[in-house]
Amino acid sequence: MEVSATSAAGRSVVAHIFSEFEENRFHTAYVTNSESNSVSAFGIGDRGALSVVQDPVVGCGDDPRAIVAAPDGRTVYVSDTGANHISAYRVGTGGTLSCLGTQIPTGGDDPFGLAVAPDGRWLYVADIASNAVSVFTLRPDGIPAMPKVYASGATSPRGIAVHPDGRFVYVSHGRPMPDTEPGRLTVLAVQQDGSLRLLSRKPIEIGLSGAMIAIPRNGRFLYVGAQRSDEIHGFRIESDGTLTPVPHSPFRAPGFPEGVAATPDGRFVYAAGQKDGAGGIHGFAVDRYGSLTPVPHSPFKPGTSQVGIAITSDGRHLYTSGDDSTPTAESSIYGFAIDQSGALHEVPHSPLATGGDAPAFQSVAII
């Protein structure tokens, strides 16, 4: 009887833990609204359908641009570009957000792109106006500690990404406006203490105005947008972190490609075109050498302005931020299912208004 009672109690505990896990398991997409100083949250349901989680969260930071989630999904970080700060948000039940602590200065000017180390120890920030990368140590409670600042290796750093093994950081450079600025890509090695060291003093040329960077989970290839030259540049990542162009790179992606994302399995790459009236989403299949070929029916949602872009961890759904095609150009989130060929199919309740204004660079994150 004692064994039976103990087993029953054990089953009760397990059932409670499983129930609690099920209650808190969710997928959520977040969108920053730069002109309304807010962050919007959307639930992702069956077939990728979108639903509003809460009213846009305001009061945590000014001019929010890039957004990224910690690997454990408990915290979200936002670059407050105009305020030279980073804001942290706690993720609550059902994906709700609340401000976590105060705004934290980056130590640089105009924080732009964001990336988090795969082990969750460091937060990397591209400071576009000071040609630097700020590195925050992330405390156990998710709050970033005061950063250290390192040269990015070129002028106007914007996009930033970390290799899946955490050993290298890649930074794109170049402003798209008001003047055309040559795009450049630099590689920084991550030291054991979290500091950064430039691997090469000579940046890699990547067309005009470098944008977002995508690295599939397998870490074999890197893709970066060049907005002004309407291109995606592809590179093979060598074992020492250096980059070699893939065959036939760069690849055409008309419409001012600002956002770039890759499916976790590395089979597909997508680029969000930001140019009003000429944008949309370009989809590409990746061959074994890293070269890109347009998928069937690409581009998707042509003519719309698409800016931020992110893909769910299972690779089944893709979400973008931008303006819809109505006369009022409402800021919205778009959702798509990715089929076996890489083609996109809009999910139920897409697009949904963000409730804010002007999603900007790297303005979509998914937990």
CATH class: Mainly Beta
Q: How helix-rich are the residues, as a percent range? A: under 10%
Give the strand content. over 45%
| Mean pLDDT rating | 91
Just name the CATH architecture. Answer: 7 Propeller
- Give the full name of the CATH homologous superfamily: YVTN repeat-like/Quinoprotein amine dehydrogenase
Which shape, going by the Cα principal axes? globular
Structurally, the number of domains stands at: 1
Protein architecture, described:
The chain is mainly β. Helix content is 6%, strand content 47%. It has one helix and 32 strands. Strands 4, 5, 6, 7 and 8 form a five-stranded antiparallel β-sheet that branches. Strands 13, 14, 15, 16 and 17 form a five-stranded antiparallel β-sheet that branches. Strand 28 and strand 29 (331-338) form a beta hairpin. The longest helix has 23 residues, at 2-24.
Features:
367 residues, mainly beta, Methylamine Dehydrogenase, Chain H, 5-stranded antiparallel β-sheet
Task: Describe the structure in brief.
This protein has one helix at 2-24, and strands at residues 28-33, 38-44, 50-58, 64-69, 75-80, 85-91, 97-99, 104-105, 111-116, 122-127, 132-137, 148-151, 157-162, 168-173, 182-190, 196-198, 204-208, 210-214, 221-226, 231-237, 243-245, 251-252, 257-262, 268-273, 280-286, 292-294, 305-311, 317-323, 331-338, 344-346, 352-353, 364-366.
Write the layout of secondary structure elements.
Blueprint: H1 2-24, E1 28-33, E2 38-44, E3 50-58, E4 64-69, E5 75-80, E6 85-91, E7 97-99, E8 104-105, E9 111-116, E10 122-127, E11 132-137, E12 148-151, E13 157-162, E14 168-173, E15 182-190, E16 196-198, E17 204-208, E18 210-214, E19 221-226, E20 231-237, E21 243-245, E22 251-252, E23 257-262, E24 268-273, E25 280-286, E26 292-294, E27 305-311, E28 317-323, E29 331-338, E30 344-346, E31 352-353, E32 364-366
